[in-house]
Amino acid sequence: MVVGESLTRKTKAQVRRVEPRSNGSRGRSGTGNMRRVRRRSLPWLLLAVILVVPVELVASVSVTLKNSFIEEYENRATIETQFTVDKAHSKPNSSAKDSDLHVAGRAPAIGLPAVAEIMNAKQEKTAMAADHGAEGTGNPITITGAWRLRSEHGGGDAQVQGESLRPFTTTNPDHLFEVHPVTEVAGEDIGDSLKRLAGFKYKDADAAFQRYENLPSEIDCGASTTTITTGMAGHNYVDFVMELNEGPTHTIPDCLTVMASVLDRGGELLVRNRRMVFVKGTVPYDAVRALKQSDRLRVVGIPRMSLSLVAWRCEHAGDRPEALNWSLPYEMIIVSVLK
Fold this sequence. Notes:
Blueprint lengths: L5 E5 L5 E5 L23 H9 L7 E7 H7 L4 E11 L12 E6 L7 E5 L6 H10 L6 E9 L9 E2 L16 E9 L2 E2 L15 H9 L3 E5 L3 E7 L6 E7 L5 E3 L2 E9 L5 E11 L3 H7 L6 E10 L1 H9 L14 E8 L2
Parallel strand pairs: 3-8, 6-9, 16-18
Antiparallel strand pairs: 1-2, 3-12, 4-5, 4-7, 5-6, 7-9, 9-10, 11-12, 13-15, 13-17, 14-15, 15-16, 17-18
C-alpha cells in the first residue's frame, strides 16, 4: 500500500511544490508519499531501536539559511561561485569508491563550508588542473554546478550562512553544502561528466528511499533567516526507476524539473511523487526531454534538501503548523541515465 496523496501549487517559476494533506504518524514521509509494503532491507533489530529511541537522541545537524538565498535558489538546479580552493584531493577517488574529486573551499555566494565534487574526475584533466593550480593560493576560480544541501557530513556544530570562515586544511571539513556534481571549472565545461560511474556499486533504492522519506526535521522560519534541523543521512548515488507523473515541461534557465514516482528495478513502487531535477546541458537532461507522462527511465540520483518545500512549509506555517515538523523535504538530482 502507498500512503497518502499530494497537494500541489505552482511557484512563480511554474515549478510544482508538493506537500501532503495530512501528516499521519511520525514514521510517515514528510510528503506522505512513501510506500509501506516491505522492509526486507531493514533488520528488525534496527527497526526496534528506531521505534523506541526518541528523535532527540538521534545525531542531528542544523543549518541557518538567509531567506533571500532560499528564494533565489529554490527553483534553480545550479549555482555559479567564485570559489577559493583551500584543499583538493591530489587524485580522484578510486572507481570502487565513486571516482569523484573533492575540493574544499569557500565562496561568498554560498556563505557556508563547502565541498565541490567532480564526477568521473579522471576524465576531466583540465578541470582538475585548474583546481590544483588554485589550491592554497587564495585566488578564487569560477566553479559552477548543482547546489546541494545534505546532512551526511554536517558534524556537530550548527552552521550559519554568512558567518566568517577560516581556510580549510582537509578535503572533508564538516559541511552541509556541496557543489555536486560540478559542471564547469574556470570556463571548462564538464557537463559530460554526468554519466555512469564505472566500477561503482550504486546504493539500493529500497534502503535509500526508506531513509530519505523518514528523516526527521524541524524548520524554524524567521523574518530574514530559516533554520533547518535534521538527522544525519547517507545513501549517495542511488540506482532507481522513475515513472513520470507529468510531461517534462517545467523548464527554467538552468534545468528541467518533473514530478515522478520512484520504483525499484523490479518495478515495485517506493515513492508516489517526488521532484526530479535535471541540469541543462547534460545527458540526463536530454534524455528526460524525450519522454512523456507515464514513461519510465532508469537513472542514478543524489538527494538534496528541497528549498522549494522548505519555503512552502514556512508560507503555510500559520494554517499548517505541523508541517514544520514533517520529515525532511528533499528532491533528487539526476546525474546519470542507465540503460
